[in-house]
Amino acid sequence: MMINHGNNTVNINMFKLVILGDAANPHIQRWLSYFVKKKYNVHLISFREHEIDGVHLHYIKPPNFLIIQNIENSNLNLSSFILKLGYIFCFYRIRKLIYKLSPDILHAHWATSYGLAGALSGYSPYIISTWGIDIVDLPKQPWIMKKIVQFNLSKANAITSTSAMLKKETEKYIKPDQSVFHIPFGIDLKLFSKKVKKSRGKKICIGTVRSLEKKYGITYLIEAFNLIKLKETDTELMIVGTGSLHEKLVKQAEASGVNNNITFTGRVSNNDVVSYLHKIDIFVVPSISESETFGVSAVEASACSLPVIASNIGGLPEVVVNGKTGMLVPPGDVDALVSSILLLIRSPELRLKLGDNGRKYIKSKYAIDSCGLELENIYKKLINSVK
Q1: Backbone angles phi, psi at 379, to 5 degrees
Q2: What is the spatial distance between Cα 316 and Cα 304, in angstroms, rounded to a whole number?
Q3: pTM of structure
Q4: Which fold has domain 2-186+367-386?
Q5: Architecture label for domain 204-365
Q6: Cis peptide before 142 (omega within 30 of 0)
Q7: Region of poorest pLDDT, from 198-207, 254-263, 287-296
């Protein structure tokens, strides 16, 4: 077990919160930081190591034969599913640790691996938060995952989902007497600050911040940029992130002949994302999968006052208001992407209007303080109900 206090002094008499989740995930880190600032006694049980100021990190080392990866961006087949069952060997240790910590609230983020660890512990009060692929994709392949998800959710005293779309999907797997709360990922509006107005004469930068995986549709963005460059030469494309398709996408850019105007940044730390957003003028989210249930990158871009063009799929229409904060296009429709991007390139006033509206919209719905307060209210209700 590692304990990282940072600059915070932990008071053992504070409200004790134990979270089951991936320490390396930026959304987990934001929730943890929020509760540390609220003076909670925060513990994290994780299969991966990552120090977070003010958080007691309990690292549970998985068996050596397991594939450790970010499941949110992975494809689940039968062989990898069998390997992931190896996490069961960790669950007794997790259960023992949970009861030793004796938290006021146990909260699992993710309906499968961490959700199963929490469900098998039998601890109460217990919350599960569903995130996306754990509900939209995993219950469909292989079939046993549906049973696991249903079992895990049945053991929860409360369930939350990051979007209204995901809430409806999650409700397919719960018991009749259960309900699902919509609690979005909140973002820090001080960190994701308004972009400084661009100087005249500089190239228009079209950009995205994504894992380079098939479901995020980056190939369509490169194809669209190839056509845009023929009509608007004073443009560039920035692709922030890395993934399994990196080499393939670079080759696509080279074959298109516009690779000199496309920047692949590679992996960027979470703390540096905002600096790249400030270099972008038009933000694009060309996802093609329904498992895009929230669209955090779109929220972050809007918070930085960028106009956002996004696919009309999954939860993206909830965070991008068509015609007000950005534009929605059919997924995989290159022509629609080209038309929308060209419109914004040629209309600086519209870019400014959509960007300003976007920041106001995010401030009204997705600020970390308001989202965190909603989650705290659920915690308090659960604690009162079990007294």
Answers
A1: -55, -50
A2: 17
A3: 0.87
A4: Rossmann fold (3.40.50)
A5: 3-Layer(aba) Sandwich (3.40)
A6: yes
A7: 198-207
